[in-house]
Amino acid sequence: MSNYSDIVQKARNAFKNGRTRPIAFRERQLKQFLRMCEENADAITEALAKDLHKSKQESVLLELLIIINEVKDILFHLHEWTKPEKPPKSLAFAMDDVLIYKEPYGVVLIMGAWNYPVQLTLLPLVGAIAAGNCAIIKPSEISPATAELVAKLIPKFMDQECFHVVIGGIPETTELLKERFDYIFYTGSTSVGKIVRAAANEYLTPVTLELGGKSPVYIDDSVDMDKTVKRVLWGKCINAGQTCIAPDYILCSKKTQSDFVEKAKQVLKDWYGNNVKDSPDLCRIVSDKHYRRLISLLKNGRVVVGGEMDPSERFIGPTILVDVKPTDPVMQEEIFGPVLPIINVENPSEAITFINSRERPLAFYIFTKNSKVKRTLIESVPCGGICCNDTVMHAGVDTVPFGGVGHSGMGAYHGKYSFDTFTHKKSCLVKNFSSIGEKLGSARYPPYSQEKLGLLKFLLTKRKSWSFKYFPYLFMFVCGMAATFGFRTIAKRNPSILPAVIMNALKNGK
User: Fold this and answer.
1) Nearest in space to 138 (alpha carbons), one of 108, 172, 166
2) Distance between CA atoms of 123 and 118, rounded to whole angstroms?
3) Measuring CA to CA, which residue among 257, 247, 264, 250 is closest to residue 221?
4) Which residues are designated catalytic?
5) What is the pLDDT of residues 86-99, one digit of tens each?
């Protein structure tokens, strides 16, 4: 184990010296980060293949490209996001400046996950850098090749005083969590998330917890089944189902189940061929422990699609289970593998009751053409995020926050929300010494009186702000009236200046 106190103190000294504060420094680090990803793309995809048997397409699209686009987006907007905000102010502060300054927390701890070991480790780091923090990065030891590569690349490309990588397992993580941080960002399981939050409570450290949960899929009989099956199975099969927002189980009628299963057989054959294991496009289970856990879940219900397995490669083919009971083990924990159980419900109301009787999911997938059903489901199910008629894709929209609620997590990130997560918003009121302001404010001073109280109540009473929604139309109307008046005046004084067509229009009152 390293001396974690020294590592954290080195980062804290750099932060206290103001090293990360200048926008120019943040931009340089982000550009270096971008260069690191682009120049080492092949090494990153090789490490992912070694850890998870991940195909190049999934590595590029679901890991590298997301990070590269995040860096570019932040570089485009960094100057805008770092400027102090000027929020609305009431009459009492009309003569004052009301500002919100953006300041970094300090030294942050970022703990990545093994299933997307590049994206889920480095994407939060991008937000931390943009906000002006120093960071200690802890990759997951369960993806060792990727963790070692991150530990090698970060000090090579990034500032070595401000950004440090810690390698290790549970003992190292336990010791690291004893240190004092100014913010902790953790991605992983709910059980470990509780441990992280308990450690953060020692110093009242704020946290973001990106966890998981059982993300349900509701499918009704109005859907385009061909597209629905492809979109659900793609969300389930990427990374062999080892995705925090993977479809965890399906809720549908028996008829819809039958249609889904028959179509799924053909789709999987088209994607992976007759021998699924030979396909280069399907990942493997990350460890023997997770493999054994998933194999035990195949005993629940009845296998109607897939079920192939090979312990020597930790391979499990995409599998669909029917006749599953809500009390079965497969319905009690997040599956995190290529196993998809189906529970039968007859209508949206039954689906809502079933979902809401359990912990709040990270994602909820709704497949329907019925706008009323869609609206009812959206409004009735508390969850981290919703995607209608597709799966997983909502996580790629960086203009909306990504995060969980309840057991699926707290806090959010992506795009500007990554910057906001690692930024403390410091409010500031700036008053001056003008005589008018002092005269109005002097009503707060003793001796008190009814007149002073009345004035203060008038100044402090909340009023609805003026809306400028229709201001452009009013402005154009006023301009038109002014132009008409101006033309008429000119016409009276010097008619020869204006063209004949305008003169005729004015005479006719148009």
Assistant:
1) 166
2) 8
3) 257
4) 210, 244
5) 999 888 888 899 99
Q: Supply the DSSP symbol for 402.
A: B
What are the residue ranges of helices labelled H in 221-333?
Answer: 225-237, 254-272, 288-297
Interior angle at CA 244, CA 240 and CA 250, nearest 5: 75
Q: At what angle do helices 23-39 and 119-131 cross, to 10 degrees?
A: 160
pLDDT above 60 for 227:
yes
Centre a 10 Å sphere on the Cβ of residue 295 and count the other Cβ atoms it contains. 16
pLDDT in tens, 235-287: 999 999 999 999 999 999 999 999 999 999 999 999 999 999 999 999 999 99
The confidence score (pLDDT) of residue 440 equals: 81
Alpha helices in 275-321 (DSSP H): 288-297
pLDDT higher than 70, residue 469: no
- H/E/C letters for each residue in 211-228? CCCCCEEEECCCCCHHHH
Q: Which helix (H) or strand (E) holds 419?
A: helix 416-421
Contact 364, 394 (CB under 8 A): no
SS3 content of the chain, % helix, strand, coil (to 5): 50, 15, 35
Task: Give the CA-trace dihedral at 475, 477, 478, 481, to 10 degrees.
Answer: 160
Q: Residues near 371 by Cβ (< 8 Å), separated by ≥ 6?
A: none
Closest by Cα among 410, 416, 365, 382 to 245: 365
Residue labelled with tokens 């998330």: 193
Q: How far is Cα 163 from Cα 154, in angstroms, rounded to an integer?
A: 7
Q: How many Å is the Cα radius of gyration of the chain?
A: 30
Q: Which H helix or E strand runs over 170?
A: helix 170-176
Q: Is 184 exposed, middle or buried (0-12, 13-18, 19+ CB in 10 A)?
A: buried
Q: Provide the whole-model pTM.
A: 0.89
Calculate mean pLDDT across residues 92-110: 94
Q: How far apart are CA 415 and CA 394, in angstroms?
A: 13
Q: Take residue 80 and report the two structure tokens written for it.
A: 């805008």
Cα–Cα distance measured from residue 138 to residue 157, given in angstroms and rounded to the nearest whole number: 17
pLDDT over 70 at 503, yes or no: no
Measured in degrees and rounded to the nearest 5, phi and psi for residue 277 equal -65, -25
CA distances from 132 to 22, 23, 368, 400 (A): 8, 8, 44, 22
Strand-pairing partners, residue 429, are 98
Task: Report the chain's mean pLDDT, rounded to a whole number.
Answer: 93
The whole-angstrom separation of Cα 308 and Cα 240 is: 13
| pLDDT reading at 505 higher than 80 | no
Q: What's the CA gap between 254 and 252, in Å, rounded?
A: 7
Side chain identity, residue 189: S
Three-state DSSP class for residue 32: helix
The residue-averaged pLDDT of 23-41 equals: 98
Average pLDDT of the segment spanning 190-205: 96
